[in-house]
Design goal:
With 152 residues, the protein is an alpha/beta fold. It has one domain: Glutaredoxin (3-Layer(aba) Sandwich). It contains five helices and seven strands; from the N terminus they run ββαβαβαβαββα. It has a five-stranded mixed β-sheet. Strand 4, helix 3 and strand 5 form a beta-alpha-beta unit. The radius of gyration is 14 Å and the shape is globular. The two termini are 27 Å apart.
């Protein structure tokens, strides 16, 4: 699993915004990379909605968001629509290639990613890793925001 200070594995995945490549996103600033289990489940809906709610603040901190699960683009589009639209892409990692690179494959379902959160610096190094990530964990969210420069 990539940990703080490690190089973040680069990837290109299809997404609701077309192909998304981590290294290209990093040219614009930092990236908060969020893996989640499945579209439209209660906990994953909470996780993605929390990222949506925090998106403006994340942008002010110089970070973009990429959310990743094994679901199809069609499923992602329906999920985003159900959530009232999303300002960031939902990427499809159907073969779990990227989830494996980040050690984020669900232990109880090898066809799904588990919830994990990574803050990746513009130089491609991991600044923060919460793997597994619990959307209700205040300390994990605080860790991600601290890695982005917020003093709490």
């Amino acid at each position: 699993m990539p940990e703080r200070g490690d190089a973040a594995p680069d990837f290109t995945l299809p997404s609701t915004d077309g192909d998304v490549r981590l290294s290209e996103r990093l040219r614009q600033g930092r990236v908060l990379l969020a893996f989640y289990f499945e579209d439209a489940t209660p906990t994953c809906s909470t996780e993605v909605e929390a990222l949506k709610d925090a998106y403006e603040t994340l942008q002010e901190l110089g970070a973009d968001v990429i959310a990743v699960s094994a679901d199809s683009i069609e499923s992602h589009r329906a999920f985003a629509e159900r959530l009232g639209g999303l300002p960031f892409p939902l990427a499809s990692d159907a073969g779990l290639r990227v989830a494996r690179a980040y050690d984020a494959v669900a232990e109880d379902d090898p066809h799904r990613s588990r919830r994990a959160l990574f803050v990746i610096e513009q130089n491609g190094t991991v600044a923060y890793a919460a793997n597994p990530f619990s959307p209700g964990s205040l300390s994990q969210l605080e860790g991600a925001f601290r890695a982005l420069g917020v003093e709490l």
